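Appendix B. Raw example, untouched.
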Amino acid sequence: MKLRILSTVLLAPACASPPPPAKPVPVAAPIEYVAPQMGLNNSGLDTAIGTRIDKLVKEAMEDAVAPAVAIAVGRNGRIAYMKGYGHISWDIPSSPVVDTNTLFDLASVTKVVATTTLAMIMEEAGQLDLDRTVTSYLPEFSSPEKVGITVRQLLTHNSGLEAGGNTSGASGREAYLRVINARPLEYQPGTRTIYSDWSMILLQLVMERISGKTLDVLATERIFRPLGMTNTQFNPPLHLRPKIAPTRVEDTNGGSRWGTVHDNNAYMIGGVAGHAGLFSTARDLALFSQMMLNGGEGANGVRIAKPSTIARWTARQARESSRTLGWDSPDGGSSAGQFFSPWSYGHVGFTGTSLWIDPQKDLFVVILTNRVNPTMSNTRHVQLRRDVVDTVQRAVLGARIVNWEDR
């Protein structure tokens, strides 16, 4: 089932010899969104869910979880609940109120919404081979211990690369490729799983080399524009600042980051990186999530991937790891809470963002915060994420609730 869409029909005046009808061209139709507390019955969620989420978020904000929070919940093809809370910052005079079009720095949620999804599309189209070596695409990635690393291992985070390391002041794509190539491996590729930003930077460089286009251009052309995700972008322009929730960095490049990527490696690469740098809204991520639940078809009827491809990419790849191809799946104590099934998939971002999708219940939950403002040591968002997703799962009508963490 899809979100409701508005259609525009153009009628030509009748004439004696009408021209042959033009071949229809698929056009992304505008989306008719459901207001925050409407449509709950049609979504199969308890109508009290809005009140419950409001209470959770307001209590968390009173405990300084973040100045800005936005949430979107969808089920059965509908946006059931969508709302913004607070102001974009505590230290900006007359700070704008948060709504569902407020832009948040997604941090590592970039890995799945942009990089992984783009890789999935390119693999389905035959442009990317997951079992080819990285060096076959990037000959500069030639360190003897790394020449056997495959694209698949980048996606499953078992490439042997460290989580991150000393970049020696590197700046730009080519410099980062040299640094990653020169750094020692953390372990023998394929023998362990260590979540690595380097893997997604390499995947970005592979796809850019194949296509001759940068990641931001590719993602806009093949994901965001087709799906109608009109606010989702890298390096948002200055005039959008009133719509952006600022973050704060406490290091040598520190201070407020308002519309500039929070992650320092992405910042040094230029703001467009495979592991971080994307800005998006609760509304746009609702559209993205619904596309995933629809098996690759957007709310406007535009298809960007096949259902079988979505299923293959979101399935766990090894018994000993929670990792799918690019995505994560629920594991004990994760931000997916107690009730998201083992067939669910999602991801989190350091700035306080998260996205979880449960195909078994046709359900998604988007939670966006700028919890790193004013300090990165703030961890109050961790409990809020679990509380919200558990509340949503408990609100599902007509479905048995199972505590998967106890199994």
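End of appendix B.
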